[in-house]
Structure to design on (134 residues):
């Protein structure tokens, strides 16, 4: 399998995952009441981390292979979109998760905004990677 195809497949899986988190998972999580927040957030974190780890490792591995292979313009756009998603996770989403508590509505609202940025990066990355195959 070529690096372009591998990257496009992983980027598409990541975009689907991220769109699901943005549209379904986070909205449901932030609606949890204060009494159930700590348990719900802990369950969410335990369940999502393994999937994030697999997807992000796949993105890094296929992204590096694509860079070594020498992507075209759309390949670089795909890599940039994925980089936005990964950087947003590292710089904003993960630290916010660490600070979330039942009474931190402002942080939960900020997490939703950060997550939309991350989703946009993932979708742009996947679309560009797919278009690079045409």
């Amino acid at each position: 399998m070529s690096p372009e195809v591998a990257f496009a497949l992983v980027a598409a899986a990541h975009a689907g995952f991220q769109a699901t988190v943005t549209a379904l998972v986070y909205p449901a999580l932030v609606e949890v009441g204060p009494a159930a927040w700590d348990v719900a957030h802990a369950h969410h974190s335990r369940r999502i981390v393994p999937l994030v780890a697999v997807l992000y490792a796949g993105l890094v591995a296929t992204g590096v292979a694509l860079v070594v292979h020498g992507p075209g313009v759309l390949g670089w756009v795909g890599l940039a979109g994925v980089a936005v998603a990964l950087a947003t996770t590292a710089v904003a989403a993960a630290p916010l998760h660490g600070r979330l508590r039942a009474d931190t509505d402002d942080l939960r609202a900020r997490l939703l905004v950060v997550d939309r940025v991350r989703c946009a990066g993932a979708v742009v990355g996947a679309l560009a990677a797919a278009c690079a195959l045409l």
